[in-house]
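Hi P.,

Sorry for the delay on this. The queue was packed all week, but I finally got your sequence through. Input first:
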Amino acid sequence: MKAQEKELIYNLLKTADAYELGYTRDKFASVMQFFDDEEAPSVEISSEPVPVPVSEPAPISVPAPQKSGMTLEELNAKILRCTRCGLARTRNNVVPGMGVLNPQVMVIGEGPGHDEDMQGLPFVGKAGLLLDKMLNAIQLDRKTNCYIANVVKCRPPENRNPFPDEQSACFSFLEAQIHLLKPKMILCMGKISIEKLMNQSVSINASHGQFFDYNGIPVMPTYHPSALLRNEQLKRPAWEDLKKFRVRLNDLLRDNS
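Then the structure:
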């Protein structure tokens, strides 16, 4: 990891610390199911002096190699200890995210629900099961080529929308995750995630299926799986979004091959 990248990660986390408050398969079957319901290890150099013959010049002092930067594991450990907002007082578990390193796609939701809070994993309730079907329908999977995370890492009480200050307290964690994972594309589930990522007001009805840009990464918002469970009429436009997303991903993968 280059010095510039290390500095970026450090600055993202330093910004977030300002919010510290002190609270301690078959493709066809998948589609039908959807519609039916760089770090090198640090090297230690001994600090003991090495005997040098008097007749020889003293050896040149070489500083020990420094650790190359924060890993995703270290970042998630920091997330697990977070007490930056009031959600820390009501959570059962922190939900940093799950998936593979260097994913093709990063999926971003708004925040954990009840099942996620109990298990410490993202999208594992009914909405999570539907999300998995949606991803599988376009050859994506959290176990092979995706990483799933949320804007906030702790459950808002009663599954309410996370407040702006809660989103702000957590957002640098999400920024750091994106920087470390370097996904080819980002799929935003629902209004809150696309608004926070783009830092602007967005109508999900008007913007779903459209492409945005986040630091050179193509981003598409679509309907949150919870919205599809409430209103099945949204499944068809969501499916059209996913097909468009897959075409764009194929183009990116082909260009990088």
